[in-house]
Protein 1
Amino acid sequence: MIALEDVSYGFDGRLLFEGIGMTLAPGSFHFLTGASGAGKTTLLRLCYLDLLPQRGTITAFSKPAARLGRDGIAQLRRRVGVVHQDCAFLDHLSVRDNIALPLIAASVPPEQHGAAIDDLLHWVGLTERAAARPPELSGGEKQRAALARALILSPDVILADEPTGNLDWEMSLNILTLLVELNRLGKAVLVATHDLNLIRAAKSQVSARVLRLRQGQLDVAGAGL
Amino acid sequence: MSRLLDLMRGDPVADRVVPPSTRSSALTLIISAIMAFLAVFALALSLATLRLADRWSSALGESATIRLTAPEESEEARLSRILAILSETPGIASFRALTVEEEKSLLTPWLGEAVPLETLPIPRLVELLPADQDYDAEGLRLRLEAEVPGAALDDHAAWRRPLVRSAHRLTVLGFGALGLILVAMAAMVTLASTASLAVNRPALRVLRLVGARDAFIARAFVRRFTLRALTGAALGTLIGLAAIWALPDMEAAGGFLTGLGFGGLSWLSALLIPLIAAIVAFWATRAAAFRALKEIP
């Protein structure tokens, strides 16, 4: 669904990674790990075309990213659910409205929003907090609301950037379980995390591939991780 | 226009995604009101000068005057000769010699009651109304020069043309000022919307990240600024019209400046100002929104 081929990217003349390749196929589960500053977030941003590669090609849903145009990129983002590290909410809207944002952006009639939002709020355990504003939520609640928003359009690919970064262990496992459930429904999942315990915990639930960004290269991490 | 109407209808759900009003959108309302107020006066000036030019052009073109300066003893004979010539001249509808009393009443407003006008050498005047504009003024002038010493035809062209030209220039200036006001309004709305877009950049980014197209995001901002401009301009126009309406009556005051105003259907032309302001705000904000969005992936 999303394939990176021979991709290079850097900031301010410094190459962050070079010639990397990766394919997110339907039903696949990937962890992306690496030290802070290794480029995990950058690689995720390349996957949802928030950045375009300086070299190499990205193909999204069989279309070359370079030819998508701005409307094409918007269309692509409706098929890729992203859980951002900072959650990226609109603070003037309620949790419910924030979750509905992709539906509003896709011009889905408001009368069709209700059931999908209610189901997701229930699934992530935020039914009681639906009317709250994002600044009123705890870190865990924000992450779960962000996950709900990422899923509202039933995307084919889910990208999560440190989705458990602000959570306690129990809540982290809850989020992981939610992601594994989605993967079992055939969604491709890519989770960027530096939490190795989370990766180890996932191994008992799902067959996940662990990719490691190190010194500008993307390696498949060994079994000893 | 259909885009503008769609915009007015709006989409309450989509409108909510734009963060609540900022100072810059309130500024748009105030600026639009002020600009519309000024635009009403510029429009009134343009229409007034247009009317004035027409009036001068037609009123002055309708009549001509023959001035006779002659010794007292031959004055009546020469005046009779002038009247005889006029009766033989084709293209002249009517003519009459002004009486001495009429001439005095014309001069009194300028010289005052105290001046003994009978002691002054006042030329005699003959007023004539041409049947059409093509009577042979040059032929009449030459004949008067030849046959009646001291008689001169004044068809008012010498001072009518510069007056009409000035009035037309004032009209152009008025409409030019109106255009400049609209340009200034576009610039101010662009500045306000650009500032608002800059403040709301994080919200624009979130909307892009969740799959919103540029047109969708721009529409929400454009609607807000267009409605603000329309509301502000409508207010400014109403206040401007009320101010014009409250000016002293033109006929009563008789001066040029009091002729500033609208008459008949021209009152309706002022109602175009809010509409034009909305169109200007629509395009200015739209351009600013798309420019801002280009910087967000």
Protein 2
Amino acid sequence: MGGQMGPEESFDLFKQCAVEVLQVEPSKIVPEARFADDLDADSLDLVELVMALEEKFGIDVAEAELEGVQTVGQAYELVASKL
Amino acid sequence: MLAVMGAPDGSGAVQGRRVVITGLGVVSSCGIGVGAFWEGLHHLPPPGRSRPVEGLDVSALFGPKEVRRADRFVQMATAAAEQAVQDAGGPDVVAEGPDRAGAHVGTGVGGLDTICEQDRVLIERGAGRVSPFLVPMIMCNRAAAEVSMRYGLRGPCETTVTACAAGTQSIANAARLIATGRCDLMLAGSSEAPLSDLGVAGFANMTALSRSGTSMPFDTARDGFVIGEGAGMLVLEERERALARGARIYAEIAGAASTADAHHITAPAPDGGGAARCMELALADARLSPSDVAHINTHGTSTPPGDAAEAEAIRKVFGPSGPPVTSVKGVLGHTLAAAGSIEAVAVALTIANRSIPPTMGTTEVDPAFELDVVIGEARPWEPGPVVSNSFGFGGHNGSLVIVPA
């Protein structure tokens, strides 16, 4: 499904997932937002978010790929690279 | 044996340390909060196979993200704990001396609702979609951990898992930590949320549940228990500390005991021997005789063999003209591991209100039991020592002796 999606549309989908899983205001989901400091999300929150993203975008993200992912922008780039 | 007051001859007790109840909290099908609960104990609910808790709102306790990650048994335990903490004077009172304050919260099955939901996820969507929060949601110690974290209690944080005896034994285990000098305050209780289709089917298929959907403990026509859910929590405190801060003292935990039937995994020993020994040891722990006991809050689940065995045990200990007894399970059904702590709350309120709530649902007490079961309406009562019993699958017996302060 992801192949036909524009960047704006795919970021919107990403944002939907993040809002639902992390229960934060949509306005907080910006590329520079840090999961731990700005979104009160720990490593298990991130795992749950990635599960939702995998399902929404029809992609697979290996556990190792999450290492070093600290911001919304980094997570989105990881997803976008697989679309 | 480990006891609240030391061995029957007094050895092993830490002199001067007594355990009192200074806070109560309850989430039950007949009311959330002690006021509604006490009132609810006097009204018979409509028949039905289960007695769910309705109207539980935990939005003030959990954020929108956290609430999805708290199984129902944790939500109920937390709601009851918050009531108990507020009743005792608030979080600052409870967390004073946090290294000598702990949590002991029992359960029977832990996060069964979550197990059922996530098993469906596993089957329908695959292993990769199972929640990373599964383990901390289902583990039986989660409710204890939750309240420990919430109030900053850094002493022992533990969980007793002894089926339907867990509530009573949790309070006993917590009381011992105070009586023996390790702690000055414990948040103690239990919680159970067994009403998933899987849980109900399990109990129904072992023919434990009432076919008529009526809980009628000790009645000639009793035909099994009605399954319930809920949580009870108590703030237990070392008496001198409670007195020094001018706390409201509901009652004292004067004694406790545990025994095992060592007989059968689900059936009680028919002669009630294990239950009788348990009550005798609890009374010895409290330095009381059977003739001192003014009331028994029974396990009384409404099953034919269970009630018969408990009646036999009571007759063994107290003789044919023992103290008045009641079972709040006529109203609540059997809340399994939650029962013991909910009933401890009921006993504290029985003492405070000087009145024994009736065994609702029961109209004709089995004459073979020779028990003075309070039925019909509440009985005005001069407070005295109360024995509270709980018995669990596995042959676990637990008794508390709760006395007016």
Protein 3
Amino acid sequence: MLKYLIVLLGDDCPSFCHYPTRDLGHELMPLSVLQQAVRYAMMENLQVQFLAPDQPLPKAYVEAMSQVEFSLYARKGMHPESDVEIVEVMPGDAETWNPQGVYILRIEGRTLFEQPLRILDIAHRVGRLNVVLTDVDHFGEEDLAKYEAALRAMGSAVVSDYREGHWPLPELNLLTDRMALGQMNNCDAGVNSITVAPDGRFYLCPAFYYDRQPAVGSLEEGVDIPNRQLLQRDHAPICRLCDAYQCRRCVWFNHRTTREQNTPGHEQCVVAHLERNASRRIQLELARELGLDETDIIPALPYLDPFEIANKWNKTNKDDSI
Amino acid sequence: MDKALDTVMTRKGAWRDGMAKNITFIVTKDCQLACKYCYLVGKNAKERMPWDVAKAAVDYVLDHEAEMPQESAVWDFIGGEPFLEIDLIDRICDYIKRELYRRNHHWFNSYRFSFSTNGINYHERRIQDFIEKNKTHLSIGITIDGTERKHDLNRVYKHSERGSYADVVRNIPLWLSQFPNSGTKVTISSADLPYIRESVLHLFQLGIHEVNINCVFEDVWKEGDDKLFQEQLIALADDIIDQGLYRDNTCSFFSEHLGQPMDCRTQNRNWCGAGMMLAVDAAGNFYPCTRFAQYSLRSKDAWIIGNVRDGINQNLLRPFLTLDRCTQSTQECIDCEVAEGCAWCQGENYDAALTPTIYQRSTAICKMHKARVRANNYFWNKLHRVQGKEESPC
């Protein structure tokens, strides 16, 4: 059931996730479309997430937006009232941060591999940090090894920080989210959320708009997602076996790497499992530190890619139900 | 097996069924025929496989022995009509044999060259020479659709629309003398329905003891086709049983493993092996099955998984290798009380789907399957009864 409506207020909104944007000009969403989107959200009981363009919003737009409760995503420093700020270049040491603020840091894997502790330092200085790696689909085995090393370094630092009295732990999606999750917490584009673009049409998420993928309805006609069931986890043979609950399970990434929205590529699975395992290591360390029962720790797994157990043609997979 | 069925001939199945890696060379997209039910919408005389592409494909496969651990290999040659490219095929097969030996490959002496041909030029010297040279490692199926009027209804020459029956049937005795246990594959479309019974009986009379027959998966079926289909199958069942033909012949329409409900937990395997096989075309592109090449697709883009130069992108195979029956099925199919034996073609599913996915099962064949199940039930009930009486004459 849809809960969120993501509204792209212009064609030049920054990306807040894996997808790259493309140059579509600097037009704002027409005011009439914005008003229609707001009305749609009210009628459908959807919570609105506005994604702001890299330009000030006219007063009439602000008025239209104020008709509903919303959260605002914008490039850092562009809209001071934003709830989530997006950073696309690794910030310098002098960067100022809101200690309660929520930030999205979009960087290439290489940047994280080279300075994992700087990223951890940012996480310590903000309310929450979501790191989005923009090139996971190009990761080779060497990159995956470097990613694991970076996660290990950050995990060890988190445990050391704890020993030195730093509490609570920083909120860093790829390191700590999995520890708090007992079930999948995926993006669920098209299931929980739908995006309306400046053209007044619905897309599964902004990525599909920028990637020239087909629309799935319009504000006039409503949402119409063919094969919608394939967006759900129970129709995703690999994901339904998986417990990397923090994984974004990005359906656009899936489509891009495997051609199927319900099938993640190897790289996305391994990245999610490396993060899962990093959370597990932190849990284990802290449990030993505190003398806690280890039964609730994330379990160990013999694989990094659940494809190994989902592959119907792997003779070692005897269970026909998978 | 039920004691009463000991005398019923059973299908032999494909060579090393389930244990062999199937590698398909689309050597040409040309064919002498333009069969009306043919799913190949992009046939042409231009796309012929060059030798360097064929060699690179063989090299790729043999270079990746560890990734293809199957005990055996079936090197399949299709078209169009594969025997139009017999010189290329002969060269490819020689190269495969030589390389298997040189590399001490685990498929050495555990391989087949497989062909599905229209049979028109089967008698020609070059083809016969090839057969003689490779006869211990060959599987050849000639497609003949049944009686002349049934065969010529669809299997016509591409320019004249003249039926090809006469040119095929003349080669059947030669073929059967060389491959006595061979079966033929018959395809049924809407227009063929009135001729099913006579056609299967005709093929038995020609000495073809295994008739593998199926309805096309495309959405061609008209109102009432299921009734007509059922009538034809019941008439065929009567003839097969009354004339005792079941002792020496099989027709794949009748199967003991058909028409029961299926469980999503214990019977969830995908029907189709797309993704486990590997097809290569004249451009050197790899596909999970030939049905995903562009010339097979009406409305979707080709599903290319790599090429002979860059290899296979394993991510593009993941959807195929994790696909199961229930995930791609509608709730109606999952709940179907006669689901067992209902087949699908993954390529047709993809081609017919609302979105570019292999995870939407086409149900165009639904009413035909149900008609088949009813006739199949009739067949086995009658056969059990007849054989019971034969065993207990008093």
Protein 4
Amino acid sequence: MRGHLSQWELDALALRALPPEATTEAEAHLEACTRCQQARASLQATHRHFETDVLPRTLPRLRARREGTPPRPRWVWLLAPAAALGVALAVLPHWRSSSPEPLPPEYSIKGGPLLRVFARQGERVEEAHEGAVLSPGDALRFVVEPAGLPYLLVVSLDGSGGVSVYFPYGGVRSERLSQAAGPVELPGSIVLDAAPGPERVFALFSRVPLERTDVEEVLRALAARGPRALRETRRLPVPADGQASFLLEKP
Amino acid sequence: MTADRLAQLYRQYGPAIYARCQRLLGDGAAAEDATQETFMRVQRHLDKAPDAQAGLTWIYRVATNYCLNQLRDARLRPEPVAELPDVPGRSLEEALADRDFAVRLLSRMPEKLSAVVWLHLVDGLDQGEVARVLELSRRTVVNRLAEFHERVERFQRKAGV
């Protein structure tokens, strides 16, 4: 007399991956075994949850990763078109070649890693500062100075509690930067949507990767404290070795 | 691979990957992330797999190792305790049906043992199936299971069980 169906057999049965003889045997066992019936029912429920809830959310991200382009999220994350890229890069190389100006303290901890934000409004590209008032359709690019910390996770939180991961886009944990010193321009641009109110971007630098789920938990707790807390909080209680943040407002 | 083919493979194998990851990680959000990571790693193999059984073998191999590494990374591990979890009145196999116990026990084991132990003692695969999934010889599977049992006995002796 055979024992219970293994997890492999249950998964293979659901996938129609068992040979015919094994399928017949497994089905015969299922008819007589309550425990295995329950296990199969539980597996089927998990599959249904995947099909109705998980797949619609994750398939666009997978497509985007496969193609090497970020997907459309709540904020539209675009690769800058050639003309706008020309304008943006005209600003950024100039910034790189000149002596770095001292940055406002709100961007960084003194002596620590830095976050600089450049906003494209129409054809104009300018560095944006803490509290900048921006409009839907404006695009942002980020330049960081990691100060020797190799990993970066850039997340944002808006007034409605929406969380986004900007670098690595849609990622699940910090990504290693191409270099741990000197300015690093992060790929892609963010095009601002029409949702009004504050949004704060946090750049989390670290020696080991941080997990998005851990950071999300902290961000949701911050969101629960309201827009004022979002405006005033410049550091997150997460195990990052360096942080910088930037607040923007959309009327 | 075209976008349509990618979507087709994800629809076909995604439920199995997700169920596998959820079984290992015991958490919806982490399982979802692991599902995406696993799919990205196996998609080419799934595309070339001669049949669904071969595809499932790849899924088991990659998802099991990926998820066990996530657990070992201590992000999803239950709170550590100093001693081996107590399992009065139950066999080790029965105790391993408790995911929390299985994770805590395996966190004390060398990495090379975890996947073999999980597949055989938690998932119920026989030694031949474990060998096929992990691309090991059956002898290696047998040896690793023996090593696992020896280590458990040593823990129990130290704890005076």
